[in-house]
């Protein structure tokens, strides 16, 4: 079985994440994509919305896709969510699964700084998708890392969780930047300053 891991803060999950996962699934023939919210992201600040809430938003977002699942492994594990540690656990638990890790162009450029990237790049393949703001340029990477990245062709979507949080805090609509089910849950729970 081929499984793509879509890791992120998902604060909140948005349509850019979902299209990245669907693009990767189709391009690489993945059987499933597991969306995995991080506990503490390795290199950025959390917004203050709990892991439990971020997971609930992910669950709402993936429910309608037969091949998408949520995975609470990093939230349960706690601490800083370094991918190498997560992947060791996943491969121990699922020895028959071929894992792929789906990332946007910003993260592709950042791969050389990931913890134990050499071992990680030997353990799985990355699937990189376009994202405005950072060129998706494998030639800029050391060859041993570039060799572990497959590029999947995705329309550029200039959407980020940061911009969604900012819009919500300003009282502007976030409808259609997130799936309807996520919009409903955000409104019901009054997250990110959205009024019920
Ligand atoms: N619009 C997008 N297009 C392509 N990939 C994306 C997009 N948004 C996020 N990603 C990818 O999804 C993964 C998880 O992203 P994350 O949850 O941190 O979202 P984010 O929008 O970058 O969040 P924030 O704005 O809070 O930093 C990363 O690999 C990131 O590159
Ligand atoms: O392991 C690392 O060093 C590492 C560094 C940066 C990001 N990651 C992972 O990449 C995914 C996307 O990261 P982010 O910061 O865009 O949410 C998420 O699952 C992170 O845990 C992992």
From TrEMBL:
Its EC number is 2.7.7.18. The keyword Glycoprotein does not apply. GO terms for molecular function: ATP binding; nicotinate-nucleotide adenylyltransferase activity. InterPro entries: Cyt_trans-like, NadD/NMNAT, Rossmann-like_a/b/a_fold. It is an enzyme of class 2 (transferase). It comes from the Bacteria. Belongs to the NadD family. NCBIfam families: cyt_tran_rel, nicotinate (nicotinamide) nucleotide adenylyltransferase, PRK00071.1-3, PRK00071.1-4. HAMAP family: NaMN_adenylyltr. This is Probable nicotinate-nucleotide adenylyltransferase. It comes from Paenibacillus spiritus. The lineage of its organism: Bacteria, Bacillati, Bacillota, Bacilli, Bacillales.
